[in-house]
Amino acid sequence: MPDNPFHPKITKPGEEDVDKTAEFLAAISGKEDADRYRELVAGTSRSPRKPRVDLGKLAAAALASQEGLLAASFDKQTESLPSELKREYYQQVKSLSEIGFLETDEHGEKGVTGIDGKFYQLPTLQQVAAHFNAPERKAFIDRKFEQGFTRLLITPFAAPLDSFYDKARAVILEHRSGTDPSKKLLAADGSELICVQKDPFNIGSTYHRQDIEGHLVYNITKLVNSMTGGETVHGGGKTKKEILSDDHQPFPGFRVQLLQQDLVIPRKGKGTAINGRPALEAGKTGSYYLALLQNPKSPYYNEHGLFIEDWISLFATVLHETNTVIDDCADGVASLSLLIGSLRLFNDNYFPDGFWWRQRDGGIACVNGRGSDRAWDDVGVRTAVG
Questions:
Q1: Which residues of 104-128 are buried (b: 16+ CB within 10 A; e: fewer)?
Q2: Phi then psi for 342, rounded to 5 degrees?
Q3: In angstroms, rounded to a whole number, what is the distance separating the alpha carbons of residues 78 and 28?
Q4: What is the pTM of this model?
Q5: What ranges in 218-307 are assigned the alpha helix state H?
Q6: Could you tell me if residue 117 is left (phi over 0), alpha (psi between -120 and 50 degrees) or otherwise beta?
Q7: What is the domain range of residue 174?
Q8: Coil, helix or strand for 355?
Q9: Quick one: average pLDDT of 317-323?
Q10: Total count of domains within the chain
Q11: How many CB atoms lie within 10 A of CB 41?
């Protein structure tokens, strides 16, 4: 795994090490606290503002070690977060930054500009910890963690959907170019994949600008009918603009979720149960999966399906970090991923899907769509919690 830029080597708070410590602090707490740390070290601070972490302790910890710095800079909520989730957070931020999903505003804060023109700051690790450790959520999250939901996924949801396509396309092109021997396109078994198409990411014309124009809805809870007077009937869904205008979102502009570490959606009869949760196997309709997640008696209750943006973020970051494509259904083991967290608002109740498609002249990543009332043996659902 590449070096983590948020784990700088710390020796003592002097010379270039002050810059490294300040960079670390900016990543976990914000630019203002990083500037305040510099002032404290230099003895020039006159700011009455109380920092979000104890910068005196942080400076003292910098004299010790990297682990001491981490322990001093995280509050009790963060300390209770499993160490692997902390590592996943840092790796997600690093990958999203390197791919170009994240930008930096004039104040030095990482985040994303949404379709509404607003800048949304990247959630801090403290905020993520507070969310997962909230009393009303912690027992459920702990149980799901035991059932394999240990992979953190951060999605810059507010960004235009077309920008997700562009970023993922660039990652594929980078990995197939051959200019960097460390970057490859691999199947899950380690074999090299062929990709020669000029455009290696196929999305279908029906998804361009659909989030901006309000033709995609998210967080669907039910499907009433396929058609009613030409209008799609659904329950619980909101457009991206409606979600961004909701002040009660836990992470404005972002989605932070836990997925199972094993990303293979098993075919029928091939899944394995983990701590009382049977694997959610392929071969059912989108409507069936959606209803299953809403059923209080189901072992999947309160899990939810992914958005298109989630899948593209996952595809791009996994490829960036491991050289491996996900949802390569041609291997006979994995399945296409039906994205039942999103719904295309035409008169056909189409759920989007995401997959790697092997063709005779090379493979491509695809986001297309499938009717909610049809089943395929190699199409399943990947769920998340958060």
A1: eeeeebbbbbbbeeebbbbbbbbbb
A2: -120, 155
A3: 11
A4: 0.79
A5: 240-244, 286-294
A6: left
A7: 138-385
A8: strand
A9: 97
A10: 2
A11: 19
